[in-house]
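Notes from the 1:1 (GR / supervisor)

We went over the backlog. Supervisor wanted to see one worked example end to end before approving the batch request, so GR pasted a single chain during the call. The sequence is below; no edits were made to it. Supervisor asked that the structure be written out right there so they could see what the output format looks like.
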Amino acid sequence: MRPLFAMLVIVCLVLPARAEEVDVELLLLVDVSRSMSPGELEIQRRGYAEALRSDAVFAAIRSGLLARVAVSYVEWAGQGTQRVVVDWRLLETRADLAAFSDALANAFNPALRRTSISSALTFGAGSIRDNAYQGLRRVIDVSGDGPNNAGAPVLRARDAVLAEGIVINGLPLMTREGTGSQWHLDDLDAYYRNCVIGGPGAFVIPVTDWAGFAQAVRRKLVLEIAALPVSPLIKAQYRANPPYDCLIGEKIWERNRRFWDEP
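Structure output shown during the call:
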């Protein structure tokens, strides 16, 4: 019996701990590039914090098969620039949601340069792959106020993430409070639909007015957590006529880089 017991101990030590099952692994990728104004950055944090405390988000969690989700909040900017503000946490109760919300409200970092959606997506896929949870669904939720203009082409990164079975949803920020108009893309919603999002049920919810940001985030989180059917309006309203130039952000950067204080 002793050799058998010793063998069992060795096996237990060698095998990795079993991942905790959740309804969804949800990674929130939030743009903090320098094109975002200080006011926009503050509104983003407050909007997510408010949404996480809402009755609707709590009800969405409770509606799941397991009634628990794993969420992480990461800020991103240029190539290789991602900050884990709140690492992966299990959310089951109102107290869990309140603690996550408080963590967002208590942390703040200044904006960074450039916009690399591709780098953020690649980072996000690795974060989901390496966390301690096993979701029935895996979702990356990426928000941003401009197209990819640094790092690998966005289509390459998107396709690699989708190949891992991860759904990508988008929250394009189509406001005008940040840097000059030379950096804005008027049809950013169409760019996100054609070049960023993908996977079963993927959707885009554009934000055109910061006053409605918290409401948009709450709606988005409920759809993602509860896996509710997405309205055909959300799926179809912002579709551009193909083909779409998914390198438009890189072209805008090259055209206007002289305005940017970067070597």
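Supervisor's comment: The first strand starts at residue 20 and ends at 31.
Batch request approved.
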